[in-house]
Amino acid sequence: MEKAKKMTNPELPTLIFMGTPDFAVPSLKQLHDAGADVRLVVTQPDRPSGRGKKLTPPPVKLLAEKLEIPVYQPAKIRAEGVLEHILSFEAECAAVVAYGQILPQPFLDGHPLGALNVHASLLPRYRGAAPIQRSILAGDTVTGVSIMLLDAGMDTGPVLAQKEIPILPEDTLGVLHDKLALLGAELLCETLRKWKAGELRPQPQDDRLATNAPPLAKGEWRISWNAPAHRIVNTIRAFDPWPGAYGFYGGKRVKCFHASLLNWKGEGEAGEVVGFMENGLVVLGGDRKAVSIGELQWEGQRRMAAEEFLRGRPMPPGSRFD
């Protein structure tokens, strides 16, 4: 029996969807649920993952296959024949969400409505690969998502829409990532409707206000206990759950999670353990203000609540993290 053809929403443009990680999954799901005619999903190739280095498909591919959307996984977008194949689907627009490669100008020119990108910051702030981590590290209290038209630069295209949300003191990388992924999905669908209807005017970014969010460098997630306590907290939040901010205790690496700033100061040294309270291990920062660490993880072991962690691994007051 021939499969019934899916009804599509004429208010949305026909689309090529380009995305790879978990952040892009809500956007593809929401477009599908809204009835968008997604003709092709372009994503990165399967990669080895985990201790066994098993070949693992990207999250967007898994969803696309579940939704029965054709998937294309070129290693390089600029390789011979790739552009021609994508443009053969004759989509009006490309929706790009954390795809992972810079798109060439002929690709952008090949779609009548251009390529709309979801970026996890309020542009021109935090252009680049790590806007969520950089915003938490900076101690920002507000962030958001931007929908922009891609151009030849790195997140420099004109903005079509933005929506902001607060960064709460308890928000970690994982929590904020998921909030922004959902917010971006909602704003992308809304923006695509208005863009097709001719209701939006692209707003050029003010380059004078631009800041960068470069890729994370190895070692950035090592905790500097000499730093002020609020910076230690922000470092732990910015790398929770991945890769996990860490310090050394007794020569062993310990990852720290679920950190908060306590409203008192101690008399000890930076990195000194001063006790346990409020369900967290209390350690002093460089300004002698106190940090509560709610969860810890020895290298090679599982993440545990501080109370459970300390049962078999005492960290007595007066001992220190390096």
TrEMBL record:
Q: Which family does it belong to?
A: Belongs to the Fmt family.
Annotated organism of origin: Desulforhabdus amnigena
Q: Which reaction does it catalyse?
A: L-methionyl-tRNA(fMet) + (6R)-10-formyltetrahydrofolate = N-formyl-L-methionyl-tRNA(fMet) + (6S)-5,6,7,8-tetrahydrofolate + H(+)
- This enzyme's EC code(s): 2.1.2.9
Q: Does the keyword DNA repair apply?
A: no
Q: What does this protein do?
A: Attaches a formyl group to the free amino group of methionyl-tRNA(fMet). The formyl group appears to play a dual role in the initiator identity of N-formylmethionyl-tRNA by promoting its recognition by IF2 and preventing the misappropriation of this tRNA by the elongation apparatus.
Transferase: is it a keyword of this entry?
Answer: yes
What region holds the Formyl transferase C-terminal domain? 217-313
Q: Which Gene Ontology molecular-function terms are recorded?
A: methionyl-tRNA formyltransferase activity
- Which EC class is this protein assigned? transferase
Q: What is this protein called?
A: Methionyl-tRNA formyltransferase
Pfam families associated with the record:
Formyl_trans_C (PF02911), Formyl_trans_N (PF00551)
Gene that codes for this? fmt
